[in-house]
Amino acid sequence: MQFKDQIDFIRQHMKRNKLRVATTILAAMMGCAFLIVLASVGFGLHKTITDDVLNNQKVTEIQVAGKEDSEEKISEKEIQAMREIDHVIATVKRSSPEAEATAVLAERKGFVPPVLVDFEEERKAGLVLSEGEMPKSNDEVLVGYHFAQTLLTEEEQEKVDNGEEAKGFAGSVIGQTFELELTPYEEGAESGTWKFTVSGIMDEPGKDWIINNKVYIDDSYGAEFNSKLSLAESFNEILVYADDLQNVGTITKTLKDKEYYVYSVTEELSSMDMFFTALKAGLIFVGTIAVLIASIGIFNTMTMAVTERTREIGVMKAIGAQPKLIQKLFLMESAAIGIIGTVFAVVISYGLSFLANWLVPIIIRSSMGDEEMGDFTILISVIPWQLVLIASLISIGVAMVSGWRPARKATKIDVIQALRQEL
Length: 423
Known about the structure:
Layout: H1 3-16, H2 18-56, E1 61-67, H3 76-83, E2 88-94, E3 99-105, E4 108-111, E5 114-117, H4 119-124, E6 129-132, E7 140-143, H5 147-150, H6 154-161, E8 177-184, E9 192-202, E10 215-218, H7 221-229, E11 237-242, H8 248-257, E12 260-264, H9 265-308, H10 310-318, H11 323-368, H12 370-373, H13 385-411, H14 415-420
Helix pairs in contact: 1-11, 2-9, 2-11, 2-13, 9-11, 9-13, 11-13
């Protein structure tokens, strides 16, 4: 019997019992769809949290806190050694003088955190400006995106103190020269004043709740601030930048081998990956149980098919059909039920996934409010092709296993008894 004839044979028998076959396909479809949709929730949560982590951090950034079993600050020599590590494009050192800082522009003033930086290393690290240009001289600085809003008149400051809003400096601060007054935290210490010109404004922070009103000053002023105000030198932050995300893990390991305390996004992602891998495996296992329950229907359907076709099987054997062919026909029929159910399940799963991703965020936003959610995006369900492949293999495989026992039973039917059955 040719393959085409085998397909026609199966199609005819499936048409003969449309209702029973349809309900069996429905059961297989529901089991497979449940497996896909349930596991897709794990993939959706994984992607949602991973994207949020990546959006909140620069993915190629590695934070270096210090050395193990040492309270000494990281030296310039050690920072230079970090810059020479393979795939490191920049090592940024940021420090802040231990003093309260006030920016004064005409009749306006505001408290601003000063940060000492190496502008060349910041440029290599990918610093982005929303306006202006990088400083060309030591007395030029960059300011945070919200710096202008911090500069208030006395009347505006009173409004803010009373819980009202104030817009701050309305014009562009590019090219404006302001005074920066630093007052050490120690009581009775004398303050100092320096003049700086704004050459550029930093890019807007990625999150609405982040306020950046800092003043970024060339680190050559560090020694001058410390000397004039009698301040101790302090390194608050050292950041190492890789040329690509795939090299972050290697650089992180290298720094750990040199006994540095480090943190990078890859470590957080690695911990999350372990958790979500276990979660997704558990969800697939639970979904597989639903597929196994649906397989009972396939087993019953194929068992009934063998019983109903006893005489037909006897005729096939009488004209020379081999047991392997008979077994193959029944296995193909059970596989066909699994395949049809799986195809419908995949289509329905994508539809349910799309509906969930559209409807659930609307419900959450309506209950929590847009302000609390901000630009946080939620993906309830994500169906990668790997999940579809795994679910399809499980569904079709279970269908064939369910049909194997009835198929074996069909091969053992006695020809004479089968021909007598309906005489």
